[in-house]
Write a structure and sequence with these properties.
OB fold (Dihydrolipoamide Acetyltransferase, E2P); 6-stranded antiparallel sheet
Length: 331
């Protein structure tokens, strides 16, 4: 394609604990989807992931929609999402990454994706906008969105200059469509590959039962703790893991955990076995008596589980395992 190379890296964000409050910042929702750049040059259309890998094969309905737009040339930055009910489904996105083309096309028809637009790198006239301030690029993005028409599966992401409104968004993050809030300088250029934005996520905590553990790949010492919460029927469901264990504490902790090994560990939803995502790794785990409780910090919940690895904050010998219930994840 002419203009920007397909392997152009999107501008990224570094994580901070608080929203910046100085003048000149623009705040946007951080959507729970797949970040991508969308390219078009005449009949050539492409979608590229943050890694630079092509995504179009997994989202044929989006390629078709982009190819049908009035604008014949553009590069826009956005987030692929799949709406389900009142929110967005990250699991539905993951299901698209499948080798069978027939399945991908079936899912594209059943759960079509949309593209949340939040930046414009090249406008419909082929003008490069990387050096333009965000305020000017936003104007170009809004013009692009208007020209696309209401029937296109494209959504213009909202923004605010009011930090209090952004804090309101942050309060709802992690349990639905939003993954957090992104802060961008209104006067800043687009810097491919650089962490020139700020991202803020709401951090939550939960007291969880240690229902099992996995060994390190390299040696027979604990690598991660498998976390569980009790449901309304009294079954212990696997809800996440934490691997924030120091090397100094591994030998002693391993001995303590091995003394508690006892099936079944989890009596409800259990940790999964090998899959195409595990890439040949040993994913076997050791079940434990439900005696140990830990407090962890987590960010995102998807499908009733913590999306990413949780951070171990402290052990809770003062808390009974049966007090660790699923409703914590809905707070």
């Amino acid at each position: 394609m002419k203009g920007l190379a397909l392997d152009t890296a999107p501008m990224e964000a570094r994580q901070v604990d608080e929203l910046p409050t100085e003048a000149g910042w623009q705040y946007e929702p951080k959507w729970d989807g797949f970040r991508c750049l969308a390219f078009r040059d005449g009949d050539e259309v492409d979608l590229r992931a943050k890694s630079g890998k092509p995504l179009g094969r997994y989202f044929p309905e989006m390629l078709a929609a982009l190819a049908a737009l009035p604008a014949k040339r553009f590069v826009v930055d956005g987030e692929l999402v799949i709406p389900t009910g009142d929110g967005l489904s990250f699991e539905a996105l993951q299901m698209r990454l499948h080798p069978a083309e027939s399945r991908v096309h079936r899912l594209a028809a059943e759960t079509p994706a949309r593209l949340k637009l939040f930046d414009c790198l090249m406008d419909a006239k082929g003008q490069m906008l990387l050096d333009q301030p965000l305020s000017a690029r936003r104007e170009a993005l809004e013009a692009f969105h208007r020209k696309a028409g209401k029937d296109a599966p494209l959504d213009l992401t909202p923004f605010t200059l009011d930090v209090e409104e952004a804090r309101g968004w942050l309060k709802t993050a992690g349990l639905g469509a939003l993954d957090g809030v992104v802060a961008k300088r209104r006067d800043g250029p687009y810097l491919p590959g650089e962490r020139a934005m700020l991202k803020i996520k709401r951090r939550r905590t939960a007291d969880c039962v240690v229902g099992g553990f996995r060994y390190l790949q390299s040696r027979r010492e604990v690598g991660s703790l498998l976390l569980g919460l009790y449901d309304d029927e009294g079954r212990l469901d696997h809800v996440g893991f934490t691997s924030t264990i120091t090397n100094a504490e591994r030998p002693k902790l391993t001995r303590e955990l091995e003394a508690l090994v006892e099936p079944p560990g989890f009596t409800g939803d259990a940790p999964g076995g090998p899959s195409r995502w595990s890439a040949g790794k040993d994913v076997s785990w050791q079940p434990l008596k439900p005696d140990l409780v830990v407090e962890v910090r987590y960010d995102q919940v998807t499908g009733g589980r913590m999306r990413h690895g949780a951070t171990l904050l402290r052990w809770r010998p003062d808390k009974a395992a049966r007090q660790c219930r699923r409703e914590q994840l809905a707070l």
